[in-house]
Each structure stands twice: as structure tokens, then as C-alpha cells.
Amino acid sequence: MLRSFVIAAALLAATSGAALAQSEQDTLAQPSLRASVTVSSDIVRIGDIVENAGSAAQIAIFRAPDLGTTGSLPVAQLLTALRTHQVIGVDTRDLREVSITRSSRTLVSKEIEQQIARVLERRNGLGDAANITVTFERDLRELQLDAAHTGDMRATIVRFDPRNGRFDITFEIPNDVTYNPTKLRFIGTAVETVEAAVLTRAVERNEILRSSDVVVERRPKTEIGNDVINRDRSVGMQARKQMRAGQALKTADLGKPDLVSRDQGVMLIYEAPGLYLTGRGKALDSGTEGDIVNIVNLQSKRTVQGVVTGPGQVTITAPGPRLTTAALSNSEPTAAPAPESRKAE
């Protein structure tokens, strides 16, 4: 029994001695500088910069850089500050300066715009958030908040005037450390926009739009209305009026391109059951595919009506009685009835 006690005491002594030696080693470990550190507070403590600072670790010695920025601290200046707090014998590791970064939460303007759009979505006649364009009263690039602000932006005050699109919104963001939320207020305008086809140059009446003439831009819905036309549909269409560069196109501004122009020489095609005749004519009207235009038959000098069926091509279809020999002379459709009015020539 006595022997067991002696062995246990010896083991305890050995263990305690090892623990004490380890504790003394930790206590006596030489303090040394860190090359770079990141702090979340507005002050820099000795323990942030010096490893193994011991009881002096919580002593504040410098102000931290601004939120989201990095500063450099010369080692000579740092050692002077440490000596005033009896921290000596610090291993500098041959460093000339220590880099200190202040952590932060960055709110970029795009994120704030999206949050405001979500708050105003379908409010007072506005549409989806994705179609709401936000403009701030003052230029806003980005905001830096303390890193402890980890919560979501929550709108607490929302004011919106649909007559002029002005908003005044206050958000709160909780702080995990102080539990006091930060308030952010934003003022500006919000308008619902749509994608519109916009002219890159001035266009004259009857011009055909090319691909390079039209780009896509977002424009206020109040400017475009419901008569919006997309870019793909506008290319190849004909301008119905003169328009300026930068003008957003509407469906009413464009039409199918004319296949027949006024005073243009055209091919006349006369179709009847079992009969197909061609001749030459002169257009008295302009028209696109499917339009009814007046044509002068150059052989008979009579005016007839036909349907535009192709570039420089007008077709007259006769559903009526068999043609006479006179009507077929010279293979010209000289006295064909109009397909719509059925008026005799």
C-alpha cells in the first residue's frame, strides 16, 4: 500500500513539474512583431501587433485606420510606444513597418439601389423591382460600416411620391456587438423603365432602318407607354416620319418597307382562272406588301388597282367572267376590274 502511494506521488510530482515548466516557457516566450494584422475595432491594442504580449495585450496604443483601409506603422515608432508600457525585448524580425487593416462591411451603391427597388416594388403603380431605376439625390459610391454590422438592411421609414417619383427611405442595420442599429437615410427618385429600341442617328421619312441605326436602352415607361417595339422587330422596318437621334421608337413610328414607290415602274401581273398575263405599269401610290395601289397601264393608259405582292410587282386577280379578245391584246391587262371595288374600266 505504501509502495503504491509513493509511486503515485512520484508520478504526480513529475506531471506537475512538466506542467510548471510548460507554464514558465509560455510565460517567458519572447514577444515578437506581426508583419500584418487586421483589427475590427477603432483602436489598436498591443496584443494585436505583438505576439506573446502577456498582460499588456489589452493596452490600447494607436487609433485604427479608417474603415476598409490599410495603414503602415513604422517599427521604430511602435517600439517607442511599447517601451512606455514596459514592453521591451520585442523581436522585430527585421521588419521596418507593420501593416494594419481595419475590417469593414462595404455597401456598394448597386446593392443599395437594388434594396430600394425591392422596397418600392409594386408600390403606387410601380412594377417589378428589376424594372425600377433608382437615382440618388447625391452621388453615392459605397459606404463603409463597422464589421459588426452583419444583419440585413431593414426599411423602417418609407416615403414615395408617385407624381414625381421621389423617395425618402430610412434603413436600419443591426450591430452584433453594441446591439444598437445603424440608421441610413437615402433620398432620390425611382422610375419604372422598359427596354426600348433607340435611334443612333437622325432618320428621314421612308428610310429603312439598319442594324447599326438602333440600340437598346432602358427608358422610363411613362415616356414609351405600351407602344414599345423591340430592336429585332425595328431593324428592316421603314420610318413613317422624320425622327431624331436618341429617340425611342414606337410601333406607330414604323411600318413595313414599301415594295412599290410612287412613280416607279412596276410589273403588272394579271391572274384569272387558267390565265396568267404580265405587262408594265407606273405606280401612282406607294405601298408595302398587301397594300392596294393605283397603277397606270402603260399600254392602254388606263388606271387600274392591284395588290402589292413583291418588290416592284403588282398583281390583279380577276374572279369574274372570261376575258374578251380585246382585253388580251398585246398581253396587257388593259381593262381588268379592280379586285376590291369590282369597278369596270
From TrEMBL:
This is Flagellar basal body P-ring formation protein FlgA. InterPro entries: Flagellar_FlgA (IPR039246), SAF (IPR013974), SAF_FlgA (IPR017585). GO terms for cellular component: periplasmic space. CDD domains: SAF_CpaB_FlgA_like. It comes from the Bacteria. Pfam families: ChapFlgA. Residues 322-345 are annotated as: Disordered. It is found in: Periplasm. NCBIfam families: flgA_cterm. Residues 194-255 form the SAF domain. One of its GO terms (biological process) is bacterial-type flagellum assembly. Residues 1-21 form the signal peptide. The gene is flgA. Its main location: periplasm. Keywords: Cell projection, Cilium, Flagellum, Periplasm, Signal.
